[in-house]
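Supplementary Methods S3. Complex input for the zinc ion-bound model.
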Amino acid sequence: MEMNRYKSALIIVDVQNDFIPGGALAVKEGDQVVPIINSLQGKFPTVIGTQDFHPADHGSFAANHPGKNPGEFIDLNGLNQILWPVHCVQGSPGAEFQKDLIREGWAAIFQKGMNPGVDSYSGFYDNARRGDTGLGDFLKEKGIKTVFVAGLALDYCVKFTALDAVSLGFETYLIVDATRAVNIQPTDGELAIREMEAAGVKIIKSNEVI
Ligand code: VGL
Ligand code: ZN
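Predicted complex, serialized as structure tokens:
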């Protein structure tokens, strides 16, 4: 596959302990993305991490809505919100990056999900598209035209990060073997890939990143 890694960035989404088997919002095989992502990092002139980073009173936590359980939906300030287990709380071990993930050489870390009133899946904007992490301007100021997205979870934060990247005009690749899905429904990961493809995201495997 033809690709342009000149002026490209690798965006590593939310490879944090709570999304790894044993964590609060464990993604099946989530740990398996770490060696793949590590082997790719040296190929990119710019590597960026995102970090889900919630206050304990975050509105996406089922525990903050008496009588509600993870997987149920609520209206959170006008947006339909699926409720999650408490995860990636600021200062907790679950919010830290997986221990084997190489972080030397990262250009920046963009944190998200700090506003308790709105969830934030994308590394660019919150789910209401009001709050902006600054990632888009950061990439544009560096002259980056192409982004490669990997990490967790495929059907939430990876998907919304890739969709926002396309909408901002970046040529966008999903490294499909360097991500895993939550799969609340068993086909969610597959549907996420199709949705991204339909929006213009190019789906590649890590061995195609040359
Ligand atoms: C994520 C659910 C809630 C993710 C974050 O990183 O995909 N998913 N918060
Ligand atoms: Zn979260």
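The longest strand covers residues 171-180. Residues 5-53+94-208 form a domain with the Rossmann fold fold (CATH 3.40.50.850).
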